Sequence to fold (232 residues):
Amino acid sequence: QSVLTQPPSVSGAPGQRVTISCTGSSSNIGAGYDVHWYQQLPGTAPKLLIYGNNNRPSGVPDRFSGSKSGTSASLAITGLQAEDEADYYCQSYDSSLSGSVFGGGTKLTVL
Amino acid sequence: QVQLVESGGGVVQPGRSLRLSCAASGFTFSSYGMHWVRQAPGKGLEWVAVIWYDGSNKYYTDSVKGRFTISRDNSKNTVYLQMNSLRAEDTAVYYCARSGGSYRDPWFDPWGQGTLVTVSS
Fold:
């Protein structure tokens, strides 16, 4: 049982927009800690996709965007492409656990 | 370029020990906190431990407290994870990652390629 809750799977056709939710609590996202997102392509290490709720590292396309409100956050992907098919994880800090926490991950399928 | 390379994984019997290493290059290692994150086969990511840039503070997830120890040698640009009293549930790919942001609100970037630890008799 992950501290942050994500849907197990989402899907969309090429060119469409999808969103992935990440729900936390008052000890993590709701306490004001930032949310970060990672993309894990099959058989590879995770890669930072969004940091500080809505910032993209250099090289990440602007098709990826993040937002945060209250105890939840979302990752939006527009103009879906076949190469976006991957697992996506949200991450934050939890004050009651004194450590970082992840969501359970969401598998994105491009139809 | 910034690079992290893990080593030391393998097959180990329950109750035994293993030490993982993560060699860093391409950045000023002594200025960054470092984390270990693991991923059990077919499962999600789990944060394991963090060590501050100077080794002054270390934090662990509850399931490894008292069994795992994170350490670093800034002269060798290397972070370690000493794993004792290993259990079957510790079986996972172990990644090291550089800390970004603040120590109370970090992100992980970049990540190493991972090293597989299998605990089995």
Notes: The interface with chain B takes residues 2, 33-34, 36, 38, 45-48, 51-52, 57, 89, 91-93, 97-105 of chain A (CB under 8 Å). The first strand of chain A starts at residue 9 and ends at 12. The mean pLDDT of chain A is 97.
